[in-house]
Amino acid sequence: EGAELATGGSRRGIVVSTLAEARFFAAGGFDDILYAFPVPRWRLAECSALAQRLQRFQVLLDSPQGLEMLLQNPLPAGKRWLVWLKLDCGNARAGIRPTDPEALSLARAIAQGSPELVTLVGVYAHCGNTYGCRDIAAIQAIARDTTAAVLEFVTA
Protein backbone atom coordinates (compact mmCIF):
# COMPACT_ATOMS: atom_id res chain seq x y z
CA GLU A 1 0.00 0.00 0.00
CA GLY A 2 2.85 2.37 0.82
CA ALA A 3 4.50 1.76 -2.54
CA GLU A 4 1.23 2.41 -4.33
CA LEU A 5 0.90 5.72 -2.47
CA ALA A 6 4.54 6.60 -3.14
CA THR A 7 4.10 6.04 -6.89
CA GLY A 8 0.82 7.94 -7.09
CA GLY A 9 -0.94 4.73 -8.04
CA SER A 10 1.17 4.28 -11.20
CA ARG A 11 2.98 1.22 -9.83
CA ARG A 12 6.05 2.41 -11.74
CA GLY A 13 9.49 3.67 -10.82
CA ILE A 14 10.13 1.74 -7.63
CA VAL A 15 13.59 0.93 -6.31
CA VAL A 16 14.34 -2.30 -4.43
CA SER A 17 17.45 -3.58 -2.69
CA THR A 18 16.70 -7.30 -2.97
CA LEU A 19 15.30 -9.57 -5.64
CA ALA A 20 12.75 -10.86 -3.11
CA GLU A 21 11.40 -7.30 -2.97
CA ALA A 22 11.41 -7.13 -6.77
CA ARG A 23 9.41 -10.36 -7.03
CA PHE A 24 6.99 -9.11 -4.36
CA PHE A 25 6.31 -5.85 -6.18
CA ALA A 26 6.14 -7.59 -9.57
CA ALA A 27 3.50 -9.93 -8.15
CA GLY A 28 1.64 -6.82 -6.97
CA GLY A 29 1.46 -5.37 -10.46
CA PHE A 30 4.55 -3.14 -10.52
CA ASP A 31 6.21 -3.29 -13.94
CA ASP A 32 9.01 -0.70 -13.65
CA ILE A 33 11.51 -1.77 -10.99
CA LEU A 34 15.15 -0.87 -10.37
CA TYR A 35 17.27 -3.45 -8.55
CA ALA A 36 19.62 -1.08 -6.73
CA PHE A 37 22.60 -3.35 -6.30
CA PRO A 38 25.21 -4.27 -8.95
CA VAL A 39 24.11 -7.58 -10.47
CA PRO A 40 26.14 -10.48 -9.08
CA ARG A 41 26.71 -13.38 -11.47
CA TRP A 42 24.88 -15.79 -9.15
CA ARG A 43 21.73 -13.58 -9.39
CA LEU A 44 21.84 -13.18 -13.18
CA ALA A 45 19.20 -15.84 -13.94
CA GLU A 46 16.73 -14.22 -11.50
CA CYS A 47 17.40 -10.79 -12.98
CA SER A 48 16.93 -12.17 -16.48
CA ALA A 49 13.58 -13.71 -15.54
CA LEU A 50 12.36 -10.40 -14.10
CA ALA A 51 13.64 -8.45 -17.11
CA GLN A 52 11.71 -10.76 -19.43
CA ARG A 53 8.56 -10.59 -17.32
CA LEU A 54 8.36 -6.85 -16.63
CA GLN A 55 8.04 -3.90 -18.95
CA ARG A 56 11.12 -2.30 -17.32
CA PHE A 57 13.43 -4.17 -14.98
CA GLN A 58 16.55 -2.09 -14.48
CA VAL A 59 19.87 -3.06 -12.93
CA LEU A 60 23.07 -1.41 -11.72
CA LEU A 61 26.57 -1.94 -13.08
CA ASP A 62 29.81 -0.78 -11.53
CA SER A 63 32.51 -2.69 -13.39
CA PRO A 64 33.64 -3.74 -16.88
CA GLN A 65 33.20 -7.35 -15.72
CA GLY A 66 29.54 -6.67 -14.95
CA LEU A 67 29.05 -5.18 -18.40
CA GLU A 68 30.74 -8.15 -20.05
CA MET A 69 28.52 -10.53 -18.06
CA LEU A 70 25.37 -8.83 -19.38
CA LEU A 71 26.69 -8.72 -22.94
CA GLN A 72 27.45 -12.45 -22.78
CA ASN A 73 23.94 -13.14 -21.46
CA PRO A 74 21.58 -11.17 -23.70
CA LEU A 75 17.87 -11.10 -23.05
CA PRO A 76 15.64 -12.83 -25.60
CA ALA A 77 12.81 -11.57 -27.76
CA GLY A 78 13.92 -8.01 -28.40
CA LYS A 79 14.44 -7.20 -24.72
CA ARG A 80 17.61 -5.50 -23.56
CA TRP A 81 19.32 -4.93 -20.25
CA LEU A 82 18.43 -1.49 -18.86
CA VAL A 83 21.45 -0.30 -16.90
CA TRP A 84 22.29 2.47 -14.46
CA LEU A 85 25.98 3.09 -13.77
CA LYS A 86 26.43 2.90 -9.98
CA LEU A 87 28.67 5.68 -8.67
CA ASP A 88 30.28 5.54 -5.24
CA CYS A 89 30.19 9.12 -3.98
CA GLY A 90 31.37 8.33 -0.45
CA ASN A 91 29.27 5.37 0.67
CA ALA A 92 32.12 2.90 -0.03
CA ARG A 93 29.68 0.01 -0.36
CA ALA A 94 29.20 -0.49 -4.09
CA GLY A 95 29.89 1.48 -7.22
CA ILE A 96 32.80 3.06 -8.98
CA ARG A 97 34.21 6.39 -7.79
CA PRO A 98 33.22 9.15 -10.25
CA THR A 99 36.81 10.43 -10.09
CA ASP A 100 38.22 7.02 -11.07
CA PRO A 101 39.52 7.25 -14.66
CA GLU A 102 37.81 3.91 -15.38
CA ALA A 103 34.36 5.35 -14.52
CA LEU A 104 34.09 7.50 -17.64
CA SER A 105 35.43 4.67 -19.79
CA LEU A 106 32.84 2.32 -18.33
CA ALA A 107 30.02 4.80 -18.93
CA ARG A 108 31.09 5.18 -22.55
CA ALA A 109 31.42 1.42 -23.00
CA ILE A 110 27.88 0.90 -21.72
CA ALA A 111 26.42 3.76 -23.77
CA GLN A 112 28.24 3.09 -27.02
CA GLY A 113 28.97 -0.65 -26.92
CA SER A 114 25.88 -2.63 -27.86
CA PRO A 115 22.77 -0.56 -27.08
CA GLU A 116 20.55 -3.24 -28.61
CA LEU A 117 21.74 -5.59 -25.81
CA VAL A 118 22.63 -3.23 -22.95
CA THR A 119 21.26 0.31 -22.74
CA LEU A 120 22.56 3.00 -20.40
CA VAL A 121 19.59 4.58 -18.63
CA GLY A 122 21.56 6.90 -16.34
CA VAL A 123 23.82 7.15 -13.33
CA TYR A 124 22.86 6.24 -9.79
CA ALA A 125 24.32 7.21 -6.43
CA HIS A 126 23.13 6.23 -2.98
CA CYS A 127 23.90 8.45 0.02
CA GLY A 128 24.17 5.61 2.51
CA ASN A 129 26.99 7.55 4.13
CA THR A 130 24.27 9.72 5.69
CA TYR A 131 23.16 6.89 7.97
CA GLY A 132 25.64 7.88 10.64
CA CYS A 133 24.81 11.58 10.53
CA ARG A 134 23.58 13.19 13.71
CA ASP A 135 21.93 16.31 12.27
CA ILE A 136 20.23 17.74 9.21
CA ALA A 137 23.19 19.95 8.28
CA ALA A 138 25.46 16.90 7.95
CA ILE A 139 22.91 15.11 5.76
CA GLN A 140 22.52 18.19 3.58
CA ALA A 141 26.30 18.50 3.18
CA ILE A 142 26.55 14.90 1.96
CA ALA A 143 23.61 15.45 -0.40
CA ARG A 144 25.29 18.56 -1.85
CA ASP A 145 28.63 16.77 -2.26
CA THR A 146 26.98 13.78 -3.93
CA THR A 147 24.95 15.97 -6.25
CA ALA A 148 28.06 17.94 -7.24
CA ALA A 149 30.03 14.74 -7.90
CA VAL A 150 27.26 13.24 -10.04
CA LEU A 151 26.74 16.45 -12.03
CA GLU A 152 30.48 16.80 -12.63
CA PHE A 153 30.66 13.20 -13.83
CA VAL A 154 27.62 13.51 -16.11
CA THR A 155 28.97 16.76 -17.57
CA ALA A 156 32.29 15.03 -18.36
UniProtKB/TrEMBL annotation:
Classification via Pfam families: Ala_racemase_N
Recorded GO MF terms: D-serine ammonia-lyase activity
Ranges of residues in domain Alanine racemase N-terminal: 9-130
UniProt superkingdom: Eukaryota
GO biological process, one term: D-serine catabolic process
Name of this chain's protein: DSD1 dehydratase
Source organism: Melospiza melodia
Organism ancestry: Eukaryota, Metazoa, Chordata, Craniata, Vertebrata
